[in-house]
Amino acid sequence: MTDDGVRCMLMRGGTSKGAYFLAGDLPDDPAERDDLLLRVLGSPDPRQIDGIGGAHLLTSKVAVVSASADPSADVDYLFLQVAVDEPVVSGRQNCGNLLAGVGPFAVERGLVEPRGDRADVRIRLVNTGGCATASFPAPGGRVDYRGGTAISGVPGTAAAVVLGFEDTAGSATGGLLPTGRVMDVIDGIEVTCVDNGMPVVVAAASDLGVTGYESHQELAEDRALLDRVQSLRLQAGKLMGLGDVRAEPVPKTTLVAPPRDGGALCTRTFIPVRPHAAIGVLGAVSVVTAALLPGGVARRHARLPEGSRFDVEHPTGHLEVEVELDLSTDPPSALRAASVRTARKLFDGTVYPRGGTP
Ligand code: NQM
Predict the structure, then answer these.
(1) For residue 25, what are the contacts with CB-CB under 8 A and spacing of at least 6?
(2) Which of the listed residues 123, 252, 281, 286 should we mutate to test ligand 1's pocket, taking the one with most ligand atoms within 8 A of CB?
(3) Omega of the bond prior to 331 within 30 degrees of 0, cis?
(4) Do residues 272 and 251 touch, judged by C-beta distance below 8 A?
(5) What is the C-alpha separation between 236 and 200, in angstroms, rounded?
(6) pLDDT, tens digit, for every residue of 99-150?
(7) 258 CB-near residues (< 8 Å, 6+ apart)
(8) Which family does it belong to (predicted)?
């Protein structure tokens, strides 16, 4: 940190965008750090006009990265969700999209030196425990962001960042089935509360009076639906052991419907009540997990493929994830998960927080 600015890299990670910092460039004290991040992003303000946030939860994100003391990891990654119109910074969840930029950022900052033409970076997920591995091209030790991989929600193509996950079960709640049941009834609606990397309340779209094929903009205009989603997640938060989640970004809610574009399941996700234009990575892993559980709500609506690759339909395309569970244990256990994302360095420099310069 300089007198009036902070070293920062802005990156797109998957379908999100955020500010990436070395932990050593931020204050150690979490309250001071969060205050600084609010001023960097420009919150609270619905337009984040006086900061570098993009006025949306998916573009108001922060990754804090440092060398890991854990011998099984190269770097530690702390994800922070900076609220847009409230002065709130939350570390209650992971972000699998921003994660796609963490490996490249670690190489850019010299925390990891790739050997050969690819980098394989082992990343400890500080928010929730668990580990991820990111594999991407780095010929001659330099990250190459160019490539032929397209992901729904991002124009053009870029280099694939292959993400593998371990120990994702119970990320924020301590259990794959945080309520201890595969099915709960809230407000008369059957839900499956699941946490395989992201706590999610899964319900059938038809049970909430929608088809599940509406656009995210249409859903955003349905005030009555958003109120019902909020009511579901507030009660589910308590059942899942998360307490009062009114000001928290988790649990998310996903409404499911039968696939209609060749996928395994059609989804409409709320983060936490605003409709997502797509679906988060670990959100998708958790929803697929729900769909694999016999007796769960999502299972009835899914067309499950052979094998472990699942194509999740969402409002703007598809997200493919790999999920493996062991259904022979009680409760079922998560074996592994994976996804392919892309990432890009947008700028690298010094950011000047509001109120930080004369
Ligand atoms: O679930 C949105 C996103 C996310 C999180 C959210 C994510 C994940 O689309 O792993 O990536 O659920 O708030 O970036």
Answers:
(1) 1, 6, 7, 8
(2) 281
(3) yes
(4) yes
(5) 9
(6) 999 999 999 999 999 989 999 999 999 999 999 999 999 999 999 999 999 9
(7) 265, 266, 301, 302, 303
(8) Belongs to the PrpF family.
* 280 Cα to the center of ligand 1, angstroms: 3
Give the integer Cα–Cα distance in Å for 141 and 143: 7
Ligand 1: residues whose CB is within 6 Å? 15-16, 57-58, 94-97, 198, 249, 252, 271, 280-283
Buried b (16+ CB within 10 A) or exposed e, 172-188: bbebbbbbeebebebee
Please tell me the distance between residue 358's alpha carbon and the centre of ligand 1 in angstroms.
Answer: 36
- Judged by DSSP in three states, 20 sits in strand
Compute the distance between CA of residue 102 and CA of residue 283 in angstroms, rounded to an integer.
18
Q: Using one digit for the tens of pLDDT, what is the confidence trace for 167-178?
A: 899 999 999 999
pLDDT in tens, 17-36: 999 999 999 999 999 999 99
pLDDT at 1 over 70: no
Alpha-carbon distance of 319 to 73, in angstroms, equals 27
The tokens for 218 are 């249409």
Q: pTM of the entire structure?
A: 0.94
